[in-house]
Automatic annotation (TrEMBL), chain A:
Record domain RNA polymerase sigma-70 region: where: 21-86
This protein's name: Sigma-70 family RNA polymerase sigma factor
Highest taxon listed in the record's lineage: Bacteria
GO molecular-function terms, A-Z: DNA binding; sigma factor activity
Sequence similarity: Belongs to the sigma-70 factor family. ECF subfamily.
Keywords: Sigma factor, Transcription, Transcription regulation
From TrEMBL, chain B:
Pfam families associated with the record: zf-HC2
InterPro entries in UniProt: Znf_put
Protein's UniProt name: Anti-sigma factor
Domain spans labelled Putative zinc-finger: 9-42
Amino acid sequence: MADVATRPLSRTDHTWFAGQVETLLPALYGTAVRLCRDRTDGEDLVAETIAKAWEAFPALRNRDTFRGWMFRILTNTFLSQYRADRARGEVESFDASDDGFSLFERVHQPILLWWGNPEQDFLNGLLRDDLIRAIDELPDRLRTVVVLVDVQALSYREVSTALKIPVGTVRSRLARGRGLLQKALWENARDAGLRAGPQRSGGEDQPDDQR
Amino acid sequence: MTSAEINTCEDALRLLAAHLDRELNDHTHAEVQRHLDACRSCYSRAEFERRLKASIAALGHEPVPPELSGRVESLIRQFTVTADE
Ligand SMILES: [Zn+2]
């Protein structure tokens, strides 16, 4: 990335860069694996991201933004290489009925409330692998937004910049992604009989369904 | 989204995701929080979403396999630099 204002990178820059990358590596790798759904691809994505980042590093004006900048490079690298449905201006064609799916409403039923705190029990019973499976099932475009916001805590605006989509689209993809995610968690749990018997987890005895 | 009148549970739930994502302006954020503090039903819902979000966030850090650490180290070692002035 040629830029008239850039200067050559020094040994000090190199040390700084190496230190930052070392700190960020577990987060970069975690995000890469969630995006790629595969460890080997995730490793390749991280390596390529770091190589690109070093190349573009002279152009980074404000090093306080290094973290967000790295995730932007990671995401763009992922998108350009791994996403098949890249076509720009593609119509958002998801089933809007998934937007409003609420796991809470499914779990939070009066009949179950007699037993204590069903939604807390549900979360307590949720395994890391359940979540990973549900996220992996999301279509790329939705998974990318959910991963960046929920896993990497990027702001809507940062995601908007990274993906070159309007903030409103970030919002709608997030709503759809989360709806689908919750639906998948619910269906997987139901299929697995996770909630076959409500279990007490302590806490309040009275139903808390007042409106 | 400038109007911050949170009069009903519907208003609060509509803004809940943005609230938990810390994407609302301070005033609206406080308005939603005020409703959550006063409404047990919405509070339970918010706690549920908050915990779910936290569980998802916990997926973001993977133990880095030694092969990757080694690969990254040697990659970075190959980057060229100039001498410090
Ligand atoms: Zn309410």
